[in-house]
């Protein structure tokens, strides 16, 4: 990556800049598009967007990490890639009745891409914050999340839930954000006493994520239809799913048990119990939801057997990406983690620490 600035690319100074963080989800995976509950937190890595006026009728969007510029006129089709999120945000606001003149946009980010840490939501929220500030738009942080999700679903073509954008817009890195994705009621909660979390990249890109994600979503909708509920969130007792065919029964069981795990954690549980809930979440994602893969299972198993780690699981959509572990903040686990990464390498993979957060 070459380090250039807005000034060097556009021969002018930016009018505004805005940032937004990536997120890691501690509990509540694949529950958001089932109207369920999630428990993410913000990570220190951020995306920053700089905005200035374009000297001509086109938007010009530059990514520092990709060293790539895309130029687009108002009615041009949206290309795939990073610019679809940026243009998606502009077109979403235009659909809402705001008028956005041609812009120069400069994007830079330290959020890892493709690791399940919501680099796309961070870009959408940073872009919408920058637009809000540049044009004094009367939109609040929840609308920013909703517009970001709309942009992703309609312009980047990913049928995501609302968790990532809500986390990027409303979470901080000192708390867990408990979110009811149906009502958008939320609450900032403390981490379990005496813990910190670690995020470790499995080194496996999430290649199947798009198709697998949309398929799981469709399976959940089918299961809800067969159970005559508007979303799986409305089923609290697993005995209600006995009549479902495979694999809908397994998919529904994951969603129901995962929602119950988030609700239990929300009550404020010990670090040990929180870790057990994370371990159970991983098993459920692996066995019932079938979104884990061998590499993630290997890394999670190594983390789970490490003294000083209360629990570990894959985080994000699955099929690759990162794992999150809840760690005893008093334990000296540097050597143990180095050992985990060495053993993971012996199994044929290349992992690395992405976040080590007190
Ligand atoms: C992706 C989606 C989220 C959520 C997670 C799985 O990150 O963007 O909406 O569904 O997967 O929990």
Please explain how this structure is put together.
This protein is α+β, with helices and mostly antiparallel strands. The protein folds into two domains: 6-189, Ribosomal Protein S5, domain 2; 195-356, 2-Layer Sandwich (Alpha-Beta Plaits). The chain has helices at 6-10, 82-95, 119-135, 141-154, 163-170, 209-226, 248-266, 271-287, 294-304, 334-346, and strands at residues 16-27, 37-53, 59-63, 68-72, 103-109, 176-180, 186-189, 195-201, 309-314, 322-328, 352-357. The structure holds alpha-D-galactopyranose (GLA). The site of alpha-D-galactopyranose has 10 residues, from helix 5.
Descriptive labels:
Ribosomal Protein S5, domain 2, 358 residues, alpha+beta, Alpha-Beta Plaits, 2 domains, 23% strand, binds alpha-D-galactopyranose
Sequence-ordered SSE layout with sheet pairings:
Elements: H1 6-10, E1 16-27, E2 37-53, E3 59-63, E4 68-72, H2 82-95, E5 103-109, H3 119-135, H4 141-154, H5 163-170, E6 176-180, E7 186-189, E8 195-201, H6 209-226, H7 248-266, H8 271-287, H9 294-304, E9 309-314, E10 322-328, H10 334-346, E11 352-357
Parallel strand pairs: 3-5
Antiparallel strand pairs: 1-2, 2-5, 2-6, 3-4, 6-7, 8-10, 8-11, 9-10
């Amino acid at each position: 990556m070459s380090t250039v600035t807005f000034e060097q690319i556009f021969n002018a100074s930016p009018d505004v800049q805005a940032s937004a963080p990536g997120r890691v989800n501690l509990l509540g995976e694949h529950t958001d598009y089932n109207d369920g509950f999630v428990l993410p937190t913000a990570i220190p890595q951020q995306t920053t967007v700089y905005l200035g006026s374009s000297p001509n009728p086109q938007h010009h969007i530059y990514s520092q990490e990709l060293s790539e510029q895309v130029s687009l006129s108002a009615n041009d089709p949206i290309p795939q890639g990073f610019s679809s999120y940026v243009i998606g945000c502009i077109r979403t606001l235009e659909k809402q009745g705001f008028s956005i003149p041609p812009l120069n946009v400069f994007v830079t980010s330290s959020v890892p891409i493709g690791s399940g840490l919501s680099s796309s939501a961070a870009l959408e929220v940073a872009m919408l914050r920058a637009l809000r500030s540049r044009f004094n738009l009367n939109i609040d942080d929840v609308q920013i999340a909703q517009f970001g999700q709309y942009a992703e679903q309609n312009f980047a073509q990913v049928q995501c839930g609302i968790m990532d954008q809500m986390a990027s817009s409303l979470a901080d890195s000192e708390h867990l954000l408990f979110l009811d994705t149906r009502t958008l009621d939320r609450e900032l909660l403390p981490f379990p006493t005496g813990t910190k979390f670690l995020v470790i990249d499995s080194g496996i890109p999430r290649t199947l994520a798009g198709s697998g994600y949309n398929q799981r979503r469709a399976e959940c909708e089918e299961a809800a239809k067969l159970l005559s509920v508007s979303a799986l969130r409305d089923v609290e007792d697993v005995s209600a799913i006995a009549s479902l065919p495979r694999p809908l029964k397994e998919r529904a069981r994951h969603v129901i048990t995962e929602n119950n795990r988030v609700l239990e954690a929300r009550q404020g549980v010990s670090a040990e119990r929180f870790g057990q809930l994370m371990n159970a979440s991983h098993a459920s994602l692996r066995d019932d939801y079938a979104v884990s893969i061998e590499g993630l299972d290997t890394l999670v198993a190594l983390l789970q057997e490490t003294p000083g780690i209360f629990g570990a699981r894959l985080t994000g959509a699955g099929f690759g990406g990162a794992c999150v572990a809840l760690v005893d903040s008093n334990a000296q686990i540097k050597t143990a983690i180095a050992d985990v990464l060495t053993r993971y390498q012996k199994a044929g993979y290349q992992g690395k620490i992405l976040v080590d957060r007190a």
